[in-house]
Automatic annotation (TrEMBL):
Residues 3-249 form the NAD-dependent epimerase/dehydratase domain. Belongs to the NAD(P)-dependent epimerase/dehydratase family. The gene is galE. This is UDP-glucose 4-epimerase. It comes from Agromyces allii. Keywords: Carbohydrate metabolism, Isomerase, NAD.
């Protein structure tokens, strides 16, 4: 028996696969490698190259590898780009999820951990986001993730599917030097690329109502996130009660200014970030509570900010040197 990890060749997915392996649970990966990398999949883990839009391939893979449950991470994850590519976003994230659920039903697979997103909340008007905070997604990406949650919940009502969805904000760091965040839109890769290119990293706005004037966000280490996915899967396997959704939040955010200081310390590159104007739509603070996940999924911040930055920098440099 094994767990299927869709998108398991990606930055987060490959960490989830490693977390399963560390727990002695077999895993199999399906990924179309549009953003994932074959080299991110650990040796000995089956990799099926294909799309979650291919229902026959999904069903065949689940049958071949005796899949008992699915961690669903595959999808189009660029919120900003989704605004200009809404149809593509919906196809990958909504049609893809519906196709997966149909294939699971045909294959008799009755449990799923869904990788959702804090983008379902849009710009919250509270200091600390909880699972009950109003959902006001502001991009096709956020909308597609919320619809994915609805699809799974409706399928559960119809078929008894066991499920939970994990919402999280900014995932950083690395659990192994072989895997790094390659996104062209995330803060850490943007800062590291600037330093490696000899440019000065940039902060957008220093006049927010925060302690140092820069935006405060919720950053979590990718290895902690991966571990939570495996704990959720084990709860579903054991038939233990779980909530339909959990926030994986720190409860206490980190400012962009603090990150810049930590990056200078970790890299040994002394720099003073450039300051640009605020970006439209950037709220001063977005931080989530992880209390429910701490209660049920052993969720906690096992890594500090220096851990996050140092591990991310090491992985990025390993990729550059390799």
């Amino acid at each position: 028996m094994s767990w299927l990890v869709t998108g398991g060749a990606g930055y987060i997915g490959s960490h989830v696969v490693r977390a399963f392996h560390a727990q002695g649970i077999d895993a199999v990966v399906i990924d179309d490698l549009s953003s994932g990398k074959e080299g991110f999949v650990p040796a000995g883990i089956p990799l099926v190259q294909g799309s979650i839009l291919d229902g026959d391939l999904l069903e065949a893979t689940m049958t071949k590898y005796a899949v008992q449950g699915v961690v669903h991470l595959a999808g189009f994850k660029y919120a900003g780009v989704s605004v200009t590519r809404p149809l593509h976003t919906y196809e990958q994230n909504v049609t893809g999820t519906a196709t997966l659920l149909a294939a699971m039903e045909r294959a008799g697979v009755d449990r799923i951990v869904f990788s959702s997103s804090a983008a379902v909340y849009g710009t919250p008007d509270v200091d600390l986001v909880t699972e009950s905070t109003a959902k006001r997604p502001e991009s096709p990406y956020g909308e597609s993730k919320l619809i994915g949650e609805w699809l799974i919940a409706d399928q559960a009502k119809a078929t008894g599917l066991r499920h939970t969805s994990l919402r999280y904000f900014n995932v950083v760091g690395s659990g192994t030097p072989e895997v790094y965040d390659a996104s062209p839109h995330n803060l850490f890769p943007l800062v590291f690329d600037a330093l490696l290119d000899g440019r000065t990293p940039r902060i957008n706005g220093t006049d927010y109502a925060t302690p140092d004037g820069t935006c405060v966000r919720d950053y979590i280490h990718v290895a902690d996130l991966a571990e939570a996915h495996v704990v959720a899967a084990k709860c579903l396997d054991a038939g233990e009660p779980v909530e339909p959704v959990y926030n994986l939040g720190s409860g206490d955010g980190v400012s962009v200014g603090e990150i810049m200081t930590a990056v200078a310390s970790a890299t040994g590159i002394d720099f003073v970030p450039e300051v640009g104007p605020r970006r439209t739509g950037d709220p001063a603070r977005i931080v989530a509570s992880g209390e429910l996940a701490a209660r049920d999924l052993d969720w906690r911040m096992r890594h500090t900010l220096p851990d996050m930055v140092t591990s991310a920098w090491e992985a990025r440099r390993t990729a550059t040197e390799g």
